[in-house]
């Protein structure tokens, strides 16, 4: 990965001298842009210490754990987290982040913020919602603002900066040392030594349980590109507007109430969800009618098997989806999602007789595979499994020269999340 601005500290020292103004264009909506350069708007950026070996944004944000981050410029990732829009980038020693101001413009004020299924079917890469670009007269731009990509406060309050840092540290689970985990995995598994050297900095995200669950319900018989498109469409259709950056409009992920509302299933079918529309709608209704809005979060406090069993009671949730949600949202690092690719790796490198005679991944073979890796790798077996998936797709990355395509194969059909 190329180095990004060795002079960041000097830039930040000069940040206080910059005059950053909030400007708006039409309908009182703020004119903001994607910030794709720390040096051009240093007052908008903050950093937290994080070595490259502990986190690789290009691996983690594009691998199929989450579907709401996009690399708008090389090394700069923009997405929605905790009801706000962020852009992240990194150097060898730091994660740099900027948070955009929500424009608080009601979604219903602009029908053009909604996207149609036909438009998204033509581009399953699922870019954020597009709005027609508004031409800005040259005289509307103050020369002082030319160096600023978007509006932001000069200096954020200490409490706000601390909160933002805590959000990122929690999301990336930076309190967990990959180096320590590597040492344990390598001591117990000689095969792991080869993988760790090739794919450093892969860690499991700690996601919002609602967004994680309903995103993974969409992964059945699917691939990352199409899933990303589906998630963007449902956010644009049912979520609340956050802000507009250039021509892209960002929204929150829908709440349980929005997903369970009357007519949601029909809307989702119109958005291209197919048979998954019923699973999404019925699961949301089941949670609200039989449990409570905070039920998913409460599963973080129960044992892994209890949480998995509870999730499997929902429509459209099988063992793999439940394990993905347990691993990536419910604080169950021992959960090992198993698909045919993980099973084949287990047979090839560890247990040649595992599931012998079976042509498909049965429930019994699923359990045996997960139990084997849990016993081998220990309490963070789910984290270790993510490296095995990277090894599965090494031929694809070597062929394309890409490290940002995610854990999917030549046709985008192999991923941590996809069946």
Folded structure, characterized:
By secondary structure, the chain is of the alpha+beta class. It has a domain at 36-102 and 159-175: TATA-Binding Protein, CATH 3.30.310.40. The protein contains 18 helices and eight strands. The strands form two sheets. It has a five-stranded antiparallel beta sheet with strand order 1-5-4-3-2, covered by helices on one side. Strands 6-8-7 form a three-stranded antiparallel beta sheet. A hairpin with a 2-residue loop joins strand 3 (76-81) and strand 4 (84-90). The radius of gyration is 22 Å and the shape is globular. The relative contact order is 0.13. Residues 1-28, 106-150 and 395-415 have low confidence and may be disordered.
Give a concise summary:
The chain is built from 18 helices and 8 strands.
Name the beta content range: 5-15%
Question: How is the biggest beta sheet arranged?
Answer: 5 strands, antiparallel
Class from secondary-structure proportions: alpha+beta
The CATH class of the domain at 36-102 and 159-175, by name, is: Alpha Beta
Q: What tags apply to this protein structure?
A:
419 residues, alpha+beta, TATA-Binding Protein, three-stranded antiparallel sheet
Summarize the SSE layout with pairings.
Blueprint: H1 8-13, E1 46-49, H2 57-60, E2 70-73, E3 76-81, E4 84-90, E5 94-99, H3 117-121, E6 129-130, H4 158-171, H5 178-188, H6 190-198, H7 209-217, H8 224-238, E7 241-245, E8 248-251, H9 256-260, H10 264-270, H11 276-290, H12 295-298, H13 304-312, H14 319-329, H15 340-349, H16 363-377, H17 381-392, H18 394-400
Antiparallel strand pairs: 1-5, 2-3, 3-4, 4-5, 6-8, 7-8
Helix pairs in contact: 5-6, 6-17, 7-14, 10-11, 13-14, 16-17
């Amino acid at each position: 990965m190329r180095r990004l601005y060795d002079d960041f500290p000097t830039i930040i020292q000069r940040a206080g001298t910059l005059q950053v103004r909030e400007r708006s264009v039409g309908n009182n909506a703020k004119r903001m842009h994607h910030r794709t350069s720390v040096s051009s708007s240093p007052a908008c950026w903050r950093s937290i210490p994080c070595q490259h070996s502990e986190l690789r944004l290009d691996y983690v944000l594009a691998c199929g754990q989450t579907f709401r981050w996009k690399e708008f410029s090389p090394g700069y990732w923009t997405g929605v987290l905790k009801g706000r829009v962020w852009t992240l980038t990194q150097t060898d020693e730091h994660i740099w982040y900027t948070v955009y101001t929500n424009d608080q413009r009601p979604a219903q004020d602009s029908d053009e913020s909604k996207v149609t299924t036909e438009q998204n079917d033509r581009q399953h890469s699922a870019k954020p919602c597009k709005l027609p670009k508004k031409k800005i007269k040259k005289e509307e731009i103050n020369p002082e603002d030319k160096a600023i990509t978007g509006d932001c406060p000069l200096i954020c309050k200490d409490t706000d900066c601390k909160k933002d840092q805590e959000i990122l540290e929690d999301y990336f689970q930076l309190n967990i040392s990959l180096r320590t985990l590597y040492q344990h995995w390598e001591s117990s598994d000689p095969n792991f030594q080869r993988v760790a050297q090739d794919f450093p900095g892969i860690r499991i995200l700690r996601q919002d349980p609602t967004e994680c669950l309903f995103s993974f319900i969409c992964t059945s018989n699917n691939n990352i590109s199409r899933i990303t498109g589906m998630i963007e469409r449902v956010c644009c259709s049912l979520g609340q507007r956050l802000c507009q950056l250039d021509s892209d409009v960002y929204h929150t992920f829908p709440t349980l109430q929005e997903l369970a509302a009357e007519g949601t299933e029909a809307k989702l079918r119109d958005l291209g969800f197919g048979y998954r529309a019923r699973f999404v709608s019925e699961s949301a209704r089941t949670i609200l009618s039989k449990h409570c809005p905070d039920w998913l979060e409460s599963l973080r406090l129960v044992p892994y098997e209890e949480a998995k069993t509870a999730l499997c009671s929902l429509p459209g949730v099988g063992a793999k989806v439940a394990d993905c949600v347990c691993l990536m949202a419910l604080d169950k690092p021992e959960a090992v999602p198993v698909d045919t690719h993980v099973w084949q790796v287990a047979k090839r490198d560890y247990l040649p007789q595992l599931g012998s005679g079976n042509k498909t991944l049965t429930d019994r073979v699923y359990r045996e595979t997960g139990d084997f890796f849990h016993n081998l790798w220990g309490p963070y077996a789910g984290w270790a499994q993510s490296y095995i998936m990277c090894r599965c797709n090494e031929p694809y990355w070597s062929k394309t020269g890409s490290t940002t395509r995610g854990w999917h194969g030549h046709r985008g059909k192999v991923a941590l999340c996809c069946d």
